[in-house]
Amino acid sequence: MTERSMQEPTLLLLTALADAPRHGYALIQEVAAISDGRVKMRTGTLYGALDRLLQQGLIEVAAEEVVDGRARRSYALTATGRAALASEAERLRAVATEAERRLSKVRSMLWGGADAKGASTAGGSAT
Length: 127
Hints:
The chain is of the alpha+beta class. It is built from five helices and three strands.
């Protein structure tokens, strides 16, 4: 992978292909599932991204068939695509770990080591 981080559509598409080859409509469904419905990829966006990923060597056409008179391609990750996805997953994991470390440090400073729930009950009124 290059020095730049992956754009979210690329990350989602490569993730959707990580466990099995898929055709376009299945990729749209997988991207929606992976993103918990937050990302709804449009057909034009999907095929533009697939063309770019093919050119970059991150995916390949795994199969072509005719279904109801229409050509259907299934796409799969290449070894390069799998390595790029693994690298991006590690980069995201490192960033998330650092974010959690820093948030934990702030929580500790604000609440003296107690979690937010404990902090809200710890400051109760004296009787």
